[in-house]
Predict the 3D structure of the following.
Amino acid sequence: MSIVEIISDVSVKLDAAREKLLRTLTGKGDVCLTCSFQAEGVLLAKLASAIDPSIPVLFLDTGYHFAETYAYRDRIAREWGLNLINLLPAKSVAEQEAEFGKLHEFAPDRCCAMRKVEPLFKAMAEYRVWLTGLRREQAKSRVSLEESSMFALPGGKQVLKVAPLVSWTTRDVWYACEELGIPLLPLYARGYTSIGCEPCTTLPLDPDDLRSGRWAGRKTECGIHIQTIEPAPAN
Ligand code: SF4
């Protein structure tokens, strides 16, 4: 595919994503967006906030992110006027480590449950629709993702989870960010291909697996995205 064809293809995909977001956001209320300030999340925040500048942008503030991620989050939120909502765990990093030690070193599932899953699902109970930048290409665990699906929270409430970029490639995301003048998290320039908490993120171990630098192969998902129960009706 030539550069011209790639740009044209991305332009079509951007129009489709905007259309999907317009349908999702118009007149429905109770819609939020989760963003870890990786490229696809930031692109989605840019597109969604252009339609609804007040859309809540939820960031899982685990306390373990890279300093670069916090600085980038603050810069983007400030410059774009995002309605950023930092979701904090019940315990600070110091409190958790004093009580349980460095869980990320020997029990990452438990650490993710306390610092990501519990705060997100508690906050998500306030919403009816959850927008996410998830993409099938990101990991083997995501290849069968639907663009829209129902997601059951603890307690039984279901939210509609929508991933407008689900079929986008990394190249698509990069070209779209370039096209829209979106600066990327500087850690990408150092070779990271998937960026989460600092203690659990390394450069990719497998160049063909974008998330192979997460948890050093000990696990592949933090737990906030794994429970897709059924495709939702098209909207
Ligand atoms: S990614 Fe690592 S540091 Fe972050 S919440 Fe999960 S286990 Fe803890």
About this structure: The chain has seven helices and seven strands. The chain has one domain: 3-230. Strands lie at 31-34, 56-60, 83-87, 129-131, 148-152, 158-162, 230-231.
